[in-house]
Amino acid sequence: xxxxxxxxxxxxxxxxxxxxxxxxxxxxxxxxxxxxxxxxxxxxxxxxxxxxxxxxxxxxxxxxxxxxxxxxxxxxxxxxxxxxxxxxxxxxxxxxxxxxxxxxxxxxxxxxxxxxxxxxxxxxxxxxxxxxxxxxxxxxxxxxxxxxxxxxxxxxxxxxxxxxxxxxxxxxxxxxxxxxxxxxxxxxxxxxxxxxxxxxx
Length: 201
Hints:
By secondary structure, this protein is mainly beta. 7% of the residues lie in helices and 41% in strands. The protein has two helices and 16 strands. The strands form four sheets. Strands 5, 6, 7, 9, 10, 12, 13 and 14 form an eight-stranded mixed β-sheet that branches. It has a four-stranded mixed β-sheet with strand order 8-16-15-11. A two-stranded antiparallel sheet has the order 1-2. 38% of the residues are buried.
C-alpha cells in the first residue's frame, strides 16, 4: 500500500493516514488515523499540557489543524494517542498500536529533540522511551521528556514494522538507525508522521 500523504502550511504534515494494510503481510485491515494527541504531564503532578494534530475530514478537503507545543522548563511524562475521528464515536487507534506493539514503534525527531532517534545536542526537548513491547523493545506511547529553553520542531512518527518472511524487522537499534540514516535505513512504513512547533521560554 502506498501511504496517503497530506501536508499543511501551518507547520505540520501527517503521512500515511491509511495504516497497517495491503502490503502483502498478514496483519489487520487498514485503519485511518486522523488525529494525533500529545499530553505532557509534569513529573511532579499537575495539569497536562496538550497539543493535537487533527485532520477532521481525512485525506484531502480542508487543511488539518495543529496546536503548538508550549512547555515550561522541567520534566514531563509524554503520552501519545491516535484516533480516527471519521468514525462516530471516534475510533481509538492507540489500542490497536498497543496490541501490536511488537510491530510498531514511535520515533521522536526534529530540531527541538535530542534522544534515541534524534541528535540535536542542546535541543529544547530531551526524549527517552518509557515503555516496552513483549520483546523488551521500545514502543513510544509512553515517554519521558526534559524541557529547557529553546525552540524548534518535534516530529512524531508512528512506524509499522511487521515481520518479513517470518523474520522480525523491529530491532533494538531501530532508533539509532533512524538517527544516523533516516527512515530509509529501517524496514516498514510510516503509519503517521506529524510535525509540531515547540517553544520553551
